[in-house]
Specification:
Blueprint lengths: L5 E4 L2 E4 L2 E4 L14 E7 L4 E7 L4 E7 L1 E8 L10 E7 L4 E5 L3 E8 L4 E7 L8 E3 L17
């Protein structure tokens, strides 16, 4: 597991009318502060990667569909420097993933349907604090394909 990344199980309250799914509360120990919340829709087999935030902490939860979230630790002062972490999350594994600044991340919709990723970010969007890389960047060298076998 990449240093500073947290995977927090989330609560679902189900009854005959439907359900409520919790995401993040100001009283949670992993909550820093509120910047903005937005939703990213990703189509089947599409890849949204790589990007790294220099000021923004991310709090991802998948509210529809499923994704493979991939993290790469590019922080040269981190004990998990250059490690890769895969997290499968969504309706089948309803969790919140807290990602600290300077951890490279990206995701791919899996399971043949679009996914909706909610992010409760610690600052409002600022195009000057994000850096983007090609999903097939050889520096990271991650294979986004399905691992058969």
């Amino acid at each position: 597991m990449i240093h500073g990344v947290q995977i927090i199980p989330l609560k679902t309250i189900l009854d005959e009318r439907g359900m409520v799914r919790h995401m993040l509360r100001s009283s949670d120990p992993h909550f820093a502060h509120f910047g903005e919340i937005y939703f990213s829709v990703i189509f089947p087999d599409a890849i949204k990667a790589w990007h790294v935030h220099r000021k923004m902490e991310l709090n991802y939860a998948v509210i529809s569909g499923n994704i493979k979230l991939v993290l790469y630790d590019a922080r040269d002062d981190s004990p998990t420097y250059k490690e890769v972490q895969e997290i499968f999350m969504g309706v089948d594994n309803y969790v919140l993933v807290h990602i600290p600044v300077d951890v490279v991340n990206g995701f791919k919709a899996i399971g043949g349907e679009k996914a909706i990723v909610a992010n409760c970010a610690t600052i409002p969007h600022d195009p000057d604090e994000i850096e983007r890389f090609d999903p097939f960047d050889p520096t990271i060298g991650y294979d986004w394909g399905i691992l058969h076998g």
